[in-house]
Design goal:
alpha/beta, 7-stranded mixed sheet, Lysophospholipid acyltransferase family protein, acyltransferase activity, acyltransferase, transferase, Plipid/glycerol_acylTrfase
Length: 253
């Protein structure tokens, strides 16, 4: 199927495509390796987390990976950290939620498609009422991918945290609904919190530069293999677990 334009007015066609889209795994592996050399992340783990993550990767169980969001560089530094972690084996089978504006420029779209992105039409960009139906389709698309054995990475805060990089901002309900719908389809996703820190910031809301994110600190929390029954409870758990991981990333910077 030819890649459709990523337009809110044609969201059904968009999600029909991304429900089945597969990136070129060889190119993805090469890109992740390049980013690991470029950004040189320092990766840390909670006690027992490396073994637990490795066991989940070997089992084939779908992972729902929650990551805090600090800057526009995050997708690249997170990819670099994945290369230097047990997640390397999953490269090419991880979907990543990305805002729809990243799919406009053809060159950039090739990059995000290669990284396994699924577009999100955000309420802050288009209006909450306008994106409601598209949001439902997006969550169904993600749940289907998880039910097929793919993995999903989400920045659940929804936008860059320019308030306090040491505190997880409010988490939307979307990640809870995705996990809930995946469970309804027979999947049993495990929650993995991956937090990042670019070090102390000046407090003026400016994002770190590309040079300032080199050598960033990443911290894997211990996976949660039993999720609550309701979407809101899952979202609350995500925020709590992600804060624990963020505390670890900040301490290890």
């Amino acid at each position: 199927m030819r890649p459709p334009e990523v337009l809110l007015d044609d969201f059904d066609t968009v999600y029909d495509f991304y429900r089945d889209h597969r990136q070129n795994r060889a190119k993805a592996l090469a890109a992740y390796a390049f980013l690991a050399r470029r950004f040189r992340p320092r990766v840390h783990f909670a006690d027992g987390a490396p073994e637990a993550v490795q066991a989940l990767v070997r089992s084939g169980r779908p992972l729902l990976i929650a990551v805090n969001h600090l800057s526009r560089h995050d997708p690249y530094t997170v990819a670099a950290a994945a290369w230097r972690s047990p997640l390397r084996r999953l490269i090419g089978r991880v979907r990543v939620l990305a805002k729809d504006e990243l799919f406009v420029d053809p060159k950039l779209r090739k990059q995000v498609d290669m990284m396994g992105a699924i577009p999100v039409f955000r309420g802050k960009d288009h209006g909450l009422r306008a994106v409601n139906a598209a949001g439902q389709r997006m969550m169904d698309c993600c749940a289907e991918r998880l039910a097929r054995g793919d993995h999903l990475a989400v920045f659940p805060e929804g936008t860059c945290n320019v308030v306090d990089p040491t505190r997880v901002q409010p988490v939307g309900s979307g990640i809870g609904h995705i996990a809930f719908r995946a469970q309804k389809l027979g999947a049993a996703p495990a929650l993995l919190s991956l937090a990042l820190s670019y070090g102390p910031r000046p407090g003026d809301g400016t994002e770190p530069s590309k040079q300032e994110v080199v050598g960033s600190s990443f911290y894997f929390g211990h996976p949660v293999t039993e999720l609550p029954a309701r979407p809101a409870e899952i979202s609350r758990l995500v925020r709590a677990e992600l804060q624990v991981a963020l505390d670890g990333a900040v301490a290890a910077y």
